[in-house]
Write a structure and sequence with these properties.
- The protein is α+β, with helices and mostly antiparallel strands.
- It has nine helices and eight strands.
- It is 44% helix and 18% strand.
- 27% of the residues are buried.
Length: 296
């Protein structure tokens, strides 16, 4: 019997990573119009952006992405009261089905959000900071990194676009219903937490409101986020606080109250625990970034 090996059909081929960014933009931030010979994925993790490009002009909301095609003129800007967090991935590759993603915003489902988060985690493991400096000539490889990290970034990025194309034409395949259910369950709870950050939220309250028990709640959060419920609440409080700091409208005492901390001293301690710098130091880095951006 003669065996005939099959060459893989590869509709998505990513060949180069140009840059990988995670920006914490300040309010009123903007870029000049630019174009380049590679793809640029722009995803809003929180807040919103204004996009001006050859194929789309308008708002890009939280959980939405837009793709800038090679040589497509584009720019972005932030409103005066919004300080968004944005992922930008620039890459070279081949996929004829990507063009529609340049014409209108595309909302990522839970599975695509998790894939994008994995790409960022692997990117941070493989390449050294900074990740928030525009127009970096090239990302610097870390001297030591996890085995196969760069190949995994490529594989994940190709999977991301395959699943995005499937999702866009209603052909997405759900492969793990248990993980999907956990993610959706946790997403509903996190939405409640986000809407009630300024209040004292307890585990018992969440169990009552979402008809569950502590064991199931903790298991779902561990599976979906890798963190405990308390750690996730604190992370969400700090995330919201960083946004308010970048918006530059409130002092630290007001911010600590708005995101649910009992005192500004406790807020400062938890902020430093999670971010490794104090709120004051973080505010100074934001102002420094703005000064650098104005010079570019």
């Amino acid at each position: 019997m003669k065996f005939v090996p099959k060459i893989f059909d590869l509709p998505v081929k990513i060949t180069h990573l140009v840059n990988l960014h995670y920006f914490e933009f300040a309010n009123n931030y903007h870029t000049r119009e630019d174009s380049h010979a590679f793809y640029e994925l722009v995803y809003v993790d929180s807040g919103w952006l204004n996009i001006a490009s050859e194929y789309y002009n308008g708002r890009l909301n939280q959980r939405q992405m837009i793709l800038h095609l090679p040589d497509e003129p584009h720019a972005l800007s932030c409103d005066k009261n919004v300080a968004p967090e944005v992922i930008i991935i620039e890459f070279i590759g081949e996929c004829k089905e990507l063009a529609p993603f340049a014409k209108k915003p595309f909302t990522l489902n839970t599975a695509l959000q998790k894939l994008l988060a994995e790409i960022i985690r692997e990117g941070f493991a493989a390449f050294a900071p900074p990740y928030d400096v525009p127009n970096m000539p090239e990302p610097k490889r870390r001297p030591t990194k996890p085995y196969g990290a760069e190949q995994l970034i490529r594989n994940l990025l190709e999977e991301f676009w395959i699943r995005a194309v499937r999702s866009s034409d209603s052909r997405q395949i759900q492969t793990d219903s248990t993980k999907f259910a956990d993610s959706e369950f946790v997403a509903r709870i996190e939405q409640y937490i986000q809407e009630n950050l300024s209040t004292h939220i307890t585990i018992g309250e969440l169990c009552l409101l979402f008809n569950t028990n502590k064991t199931t709640l903790h298991r779902a959060f561990r599976a979906a986020t890798g963190a405990t419920v308390v750690q996730r609440i604190n992370r969400m409080r700090i995330h919201a606080a960083k946004t308010l700091i970048r918006e530059q409208n409130l002092n630290f005492t007001q911010i600590s109250e708005k995101v649910g901390f009992s005192s500004v001293h406790y807020f400062t301690r938890v902020f430093a625990q999670y971010e490794k710098i104090t709120p004051s130091e973080y505010s100074k880095t934001i102002r420094a970034r703005l000064a650098i951006s104005d010079e570019i």
